[in-house]
Structure of Metal ABC transporter substrate-binding protein:
Amino acid sequence: MKAIYAILLLALPFSVDAQEEKKLVVATASIFADMAEVISGGQVNVQMIVPIGGDPHIYEPTPGDAQLVNGADLILRNGLTFEGWLNELIENSGTRASIVTITQGVQPIESIQYKNSTDPHAWMDVANGLIYIENIKNALTELDPEHADIYEFNYGIYRQQLEDLDREIQQEIRRIPEKRRILITSHDAFRYYGKRYGIDVQAILGTSTDADAQTSDIVRLNKIIQSSGVPAVFIETTVNPKLLQQIATDNNIEVGGKLYSDSIGDKDSPAPTYIDMLKYNTSTIVAALSKADTADTDTSEAEKSNYGLFVVLGVLLLGGFIFMVVKLNG
C-alpha cells in the first residue's frame, strides 16, 4: 500500500506540471473563447474574461480578471470598439502576453450614431467568422508551433463547418416572405447578419448597450411595425427586454424569441457554441417572421372560400329566377 501511495505522490507533481505547461490563452468574450477551444483541441488552456451571459459592452473587470490577464500567454480581442475596458485592464495587470486582434482583415461597418466608430459585431456574418478563426489559428500557431499541425487540421474542419453554415443560413432566410424580412432587436448587433443574409435590421439601441433609448427611437420602431406589418420583434439574452416587450404589446405583435448576440449560451442552452448560436438565431428568426406568410395564406384561403360560396348562391338565385319565369310563361 505504501508503495502505491509513493507512486501516486510521484505521479501527482508530474500531472500538475504537465497541465501547467499548457499555454494560457485568454479571450475577451465567450464567442471567441469557443472558437479558440475548437481550433486548439485542448492543446492550450482557454479562458474568457466576460463570463457567459455577460454584456461585454458594459463589463466591469474584477481583480480576478487582472490576475487572469497577468498570467496569459496570449490575449484574443475583438477590437472595433467592443471592449472599451480592455486597455486599462491590460495596463493594470502588468501582463506580457501577446495581444491579437482577431478582426484583422474584416471590412467593418461604420457606426450610424457615432463618428469614427465601427460596429463590433462582425462575427454575426459567417464570412467574417472565417476571418476570425484564421486569425486565431495563426495566433495559436505562433504561440505554440509544436502543435501547428493540430491547429491546422482542426481549423480546416471548422472552416468547412462554417462554410456549410453560411449556405444554410442563406437558404433559411429565403423562406421568409420578402416583405417580412425585417429584424427588430434590442440593440444594433445584427447589422453584419442583415447585410450578409438580406434582412433589414432595426433596433432600439445602437451598436453598444451602454446608452439609453430615445423617444425618437421608439416612435421610429412603431412606425416601421405599423407600416410593414412585421409580425414579431426579438429580445436578446444580454439586454434588458422590458422596453421591446412593451413595444410589442403596444403594437399587438409577438416577441418572436430571445436571440444570442454578444455571448453564447451555457452548455444546457440551445446555443452553447458559436455555430449553435447562429443556427438557433436563424431558426428563431425564420419561424417568427414566416408566421405572417401562414396568416396571409389563411386569409387568402378564406377569401377563396367566401368567393366560392357567393358563386353557388348566385347560381341558385339565377336558377330559381329562370324556373319562375318558365312557370309563369307556361
User: Anything to note?
Assistant: The chain is about 55% helix and 10% strand. Residues 1-19, 292-305 have pLDDT under 50 and may be disordered. The longest strand covers residues 182-187. Residues 2-172 form a domain with the Rossmann fold fold (CATH 3.40.50.1980).
